[in-house]
Design brief:
Blueprint (H helix, E strand, L loop, with lengths): L13 E7 L5 H12 L4 E3 L8 E8 L6 H5 L3 E9 L1 E3 L9 E4 L7 H9 L3 E5 L8 E2 L2 E2 H6 L9 E14 L2 E8 L5 H12 L3 E11 L8 E2 H17 L12 E5 L1 H8 L4 E2 L7 E7 L3 E8 L4 E7 L8
Parallel strand pairs: 1-13, 3-12, 14-16
Antiparallel strand pairs: 1-3, 2-3, 4-11, 4-12, 5-6, 7-10, 8-9, 10-11, 15-18, 16-17, 17-18
Helix pairs in contact: 1-6
């Protein structure tokens, strides 16, 4: 125990890709894993609704510095929509039925044509049941008070959308989309194009920033591993730089690495790259995120102080 009777936490650095179970908030899932790891610092990226399941990247220690980059990452979802019924929340999680409509008898080709019409960039109006703020108030708080306020459309991008099943009132598709995309609203808009209404019955996030669904771990598995060998569980966490695999990499020598870690800009030989890059010291020691300008100057943007792992 720490002085004063408080809990003594450990320094834990790394990422865990949790397959969030249904009926649990993202923060509750984070705190549950944090206790199992006894981690001093923790954060998650991209909240999932309590009823949703799937990939929730949990960041611990120095890895919390990649949270902002993961929030900006593209995400892939498997979506199950219930056609013919619209709810106040846009999903099946406690929302009241606000509209019903007949469901047209459409072929797979018809559905594919409708879905593909949503590819590319567009403007989307966020739902009232969201965590966005209007005049300092969360929209979902206003919605629960029976209020509806004007919301500004926001730019979104749909990169891929694939029909998986269309049978009666059940529509299942997979979508890869940009940050800020509300899948519940997308489902409603798709139904409108089909001449009916709908709500999201099930939502499962399959990937974030290129992480694979097979790399996810269930909470029950984490609990079992923590009880059996917590040190091995901690050692098996993903390194923070795996969340940044989409960035180019730059390697510097020990002298340059010390300057970078101290917050100094430095000149590098590679002038072909521009923008954010992963920075490594010789031996593939990850130092952080830097920004390259066209003249070959590398400026630190996020410096990481990772502990050297003993073999």
């Amino acid at each position: 125990m720490a002085r004063g009777g408080g809990r003594r936490y450990d320094t834990v650095d790394g990422l865990l890709l949790l397959n969030k179970p249904p009926g649990m908030t993202s923060n509750r899932a984070l705190q549950a894993v944090r206790r199992l790891l006894n981690a001093k610092k923790a954060g998650h990226t991209g909240s999932l609704d309590p009823s949703a399941t799937g990939m929730l990247p949990l960041c611990f220690g120095e890895a919390t510095k990649v949270c902002a980059y993961l929030l900006d990452a593209d995400k892939t979802y498997r979506v199950t929509a219930r056609l013919g019924t619209a709810t106040s929340t846009g999903d099946a999680d406690g929302g009241e039925t606000i509209a019903t409509a007949d469901v047209p008898d459409l072929s797979s080709e018809d559905w594919n044509e409708i879905l593909h019409g949503f590819l590319g960039e567009s403007m989307q109006i966020p739902p009232m049941y969201s965590a966005l703020k209007k005049d300092g108030q969360r929209l979902y708080v206003l919605a629960r008070q029976g209020q509806t306020v004007e919301r500004e459309p926001r730019p979104i991008r749909i990169d891929q959308i694939q029909l998986l099943e269309a049978a009666g009132r059940r529509l299942v598709f997979r979508v890869t989309c940009s940050k800020g995309t509300y899948v519940r609203t997308l489902v409603e808009d798709i139904a409108l194009q089909a001449g009916t209404v709908a709500h999201t019955a099930r939502l499962h996030r399959e990937s974030v920033a290129g992480f694979r669904s097979e790399d996810m771990v269930d909470l029950a598995t984490v609990e079992a591993q923590a009880e059996e060998d917590r040190d091995a569980l901690v050692a098996g966490l993903l390194p923070p730089d795996e969340a940044l695999a989409g960035m180019d990499a730059v390697e510097v020598d020990a002298t340059e690495g010390a300057k970078f870690s101290g917050g100094q800009a430095l000149r590098v030989a590679d002038e072909s790259k521009i923008g954010l890059v992963r920075v490594y010291q010789a031996g593939r020691r990850f130092l952080g995120v830097g920004e390259l300008s066209g003249d070959g100057m590398l400026a630190p943007r996020r410096v990481f102080q990772l502990q050297e792992k003993t073999p």
